[in-house]
Specification:
This protein is of the alpha/beta class and 279 residues long. The chain has a single domain (44-274), classed as 3-Layer(aba) Sandwich (Rossmann fold). Helices cover 40% and strands 17% of the residues. It contains twelve helices and nine strands. It has helices at 7-31, 59-67, 82-94, 107-115, 139-143, 151-154, 178-182, 188-196, 203-207, 233-242, 256-259, 261-274, and strands spanning 44-48, 72-73, 100-105, 122-128, 155-161, 167-173, 201-202, 220-225, 246-250. A six-stranded parallel sheet has the order 2-1-3-4-8-9, with helices on both faces. It has a three-stranded antiparallel sheet with strand order 5-6-7. Helix 4 links the parallel strand 3 and strand 4. Helix 2 packs across helix 12 (261-274) and helix 3 packs across helix 4. It is globular.
């Protein structure tokens, strides 16, 4: 008959077993390779507003992109001339390290098409109810390609002095027509604030022909605003098809980034996810 084990003996045996298991566990863990928690770097999203708006028109989109972990830039566009505006935006994107998703609304589409030419770090172009000109085309010419725009009747020309002397012409949307023309569906008070802070664009900028078309080499996405009164929706669809852009349509006014920031953000995120890390 075996002698009963004392409490001290049992305790010692348990402690010895635990120590052995602990040593084995540590050794096994040390033997396993440690896999790094690698996470691809998200592209920086650069948002370019168009005429009669400012960078605040992207506020709802910016909040959503930042929640998704993106770095976002939304610079103020001078709206003085296509060549000079594109050069300015090129200086902005050249200051960004890593891949860039470049987004343009309205006239901003013409700007990104020119600014992104030969920019290897721009990996995607996203057009939001925007112009997508080919070389030699202007924003104004594309507006007139299809019927439907009422912008001409809604704008008021005003003169401003040119640095070289003489007078230039810039356009603003008449405040009493701003909501109907630009932001139908946006709450009235919001539209009133937008009208008060709208940025005028020179007539020369809308008439200036493009000298580059980056969409011919860079993958693009397009959101058609089906209730747009600035750019005819038929023109938007035609430009999207020509650029072979992945296209969505939203029942929204020209100021779709204000009225419907959710679908705008979703399209930008689709473009962002298509950017392959390290490419």
């Amino acid at each position: 008959m075996n002698a009963p084990l004392s409490r001290r003996t049992v305790t010692a045996s348990l402690l010895a077993g635990a120590a052995a298991l602990g040593t084995t566990g540590v050794a096994a863990a040390a033997a396993r390779p440690v896999e790094p928690r690698w996470r691809p770097v998200r592209p920086t999203v650069v948002l370019i507003h168009g005429a009669f708006a400012d960078a605040s028109s992207w506020s709802g989109v910016v909040r959503r992109l930042q929640r998704d972990g993106h770095r976002v830039l939304a610079p103020a566009l001078p709206l003085r001339g296509l060549t000079s505006d594109a050069a300015y935006i090129r200086s902005v994107i050249d200051s960004v390290s890593g891949p860039v998703v470049l987004v343009g609304h309205s006239y901003g589409g013409a700007v990104i098409s020119q600014a992104a030419a030969d920019a290897p770090h721009v990996k995607a172009l996203v057009y939001i109810a925007a112009f997508v000109p080919d070389v030699g085309e202007s924003a104004l010419g594309l507006t007139d390609k299809y019927p439907g725009s009422t912008l001409g009747q809604a704008t008021a020309p005003q003169s401003y002095p040119l640095p070289s002397g003489g007078q230039g012409t810039e356009l603003v949307i008449k405040k009493e027509l701003f909501r109907e023309q630009f932001a139908a569906g946006v709450p009235t008070r919001t539209a009133q604030v937008m009208a008060a802070g709208q940025r005028p664009i020179t007539l020369a900028a809308l008439q200036e022909p493009a000298t580059a078309a980056a969409w011919k080499k860079i993958p693009s996405w397009y959101l058609v605003a089906t209730e747009d009164r600035n750019i005819p929706p038929a023109a938007e669809r035609w430009m999207a098809r020509r650029a072979r852009a992945r296209t969505v349509a939203v029942r929204a006014p020209h100021a779709v980034s204000v009225s419907d920031p959710g679908p705008v953000t979703d399209l930008i995120l689709r473009a962002s996810r298509a950017v392959r890390p390290g490419r």
